[in-house]
Specification:
The complex is a heterodimer of chains A (154) and B (342).
Chain A lengths: L2 H21 L3 E2 L5 E2 L6 H28 L4 H15 L6 H10 L1 H12 L1 H35 L1
Chain B lengths: L1 H20 L5 H29 L6 H9 L5 H13 L21 H11 L5 H13 L10 H4 L5 E2 L2 E2 L6 E2 L6 E7 L4 H9 L1 H9 L4 E7 L5 H15 L3 H11 L10 H10 L4 H9 L4 H13 L7 E5 L5 E5 L4 H13 L1
Parallel strand pairs in B: 4-5
Antiparallel strand pairs in B: 1-2, 3-5, 4-6, 6-7
Helix pairs in contact in B: 1-2, 3-5, 5-6, 8-11, 9-15, 10-11, 10-12, 10-13, 12-13
Classes of the chains: A mainly alpha (154), B alpha+beta (342).
Amino acid sequence: MNIRYIFLAIIIFFSLCLPLLAVTEFLFLEPYVFFYVPIYHLPNFLSIVIISALTGLVLSMSVYRIRFLQASTKKLRSGLLGSILGAGAGACCGGVGVALISIFGTVGIAATTFLTNLEIPLRLISIGILIFTYLMIVKDLNRECNLNFDVKER
Amino acid sequence: MVLSMVQTSISLMEIMFYLKRQKYITKNKLNFSLYTILLVSVFILFGMSSQSVSAQEIPSWIKNTAGWWAEDKINENDFVNGIEYLIQNEILKIPQTQISKTQESHDIPPWIKNTAGWWARNQISDTDFVNGIQYLISQEIVSVTNPSQALRESTIQKIGTFDISKAGSVEGYDDAAFTIIMFSDYQCEKCALWFQHEKNLLTEELIDSGKARFYHLDFPFLGEDSFLASEASHCANDQNRYADYQKILYEKQNGINNGWASHDSLVGYAADLGLDTKQFDSCLLWDKHKLQVQHNKEVGSFHGVVGTPVFFIINSEDIIKKITGPQPPMIFQKVVEELESN
């Protein structure tokens, strides 16, 4: 177990989770810093936590593979795709939605509409991509580590 | 149109160059013809641009209503009332028109209806349609005696720096020490969820107890249907059912611009509520409350509202506190207590 990569996973988790919670309005900054998850928003909140946790896990494992096993960045990219998709979903009304509309106008409205109307499916797709990437990385790590071990033994 | 004009000019110039290369024309003739083409093109383009400026005076959606009248989907009165409203509120801009001293009759001549139909089908120009409207004004069939200034100068009711004169309805007692203003978009899911789950508790704790009054102001920013839904809520207010209709809108909220807040759906909700659908439909069709909604949105923008829901709590000394996002009633309570202690 490499403590540095666990630490990296935790940092990625918090640095994704906190902004997402603020953007999706579970974490309020005005007039007081206040955290509130109403029961009717529980699925949304859980999906954000799961996406952040999986992103932390997948990205830190990908970094490990790239650094020590000289693996390709393909899985890192699919991990990032999963997290971006999950982060974008449900961006309506609050921060990201407004930013999209004010920057891109009509196109921004269309993007916000898409992200909002398909919030849950997008989050599920995102979780699916991240789980798939995680499984592939685990499989690759087992294979590559065994292979390296065999080489060393000879 | 402009593009094809430019293309035609370029083609003509190319033909002239070709003729010169083939030595059918001299250099002087080539220059002369190029200048002529250029000059004529500029004149035509100038003419077209001035025409397009006047065309901008008529919003394109008025064509739909003109078409409906021509097809007898709406009656003459609705058309006249609508045109009057649009002219009075400067949405439809018509050149100054002299009132005729020899008025023929107060009935709309059939040619006007034909003109409206042709105009709706793009068979005649905007100018022809405007001529028809000018005729109606000259015959005093369409009255333009009350300009929009009257609406703008109508009672300005201010709380702090907020003009709430165009708010739909107010909840709470007149002598309440605090005012809560909510800016909301009917297509915003968080606004709908807040209204359904948190508003009742807020009403119990602050509004029914006489501590605060509650105003709802429109801030439609998520597309056309948001604006239409806000207008619809004011059309319901005309029949004294603002709160009931608003409740229905928040219950029916189901995404953005996907049809749940289309014209037909909104009229359908009015019918479910037992409103006079003919009056409601006409109100919505003619954008009777467009300026009201625009005004409320401007009030929000002026106070830095960019997304929804946003709340402002104002005390009797006009001290304002902003609450951003769908926060629970306990935060409102805390802000009120803080303002009280001040």
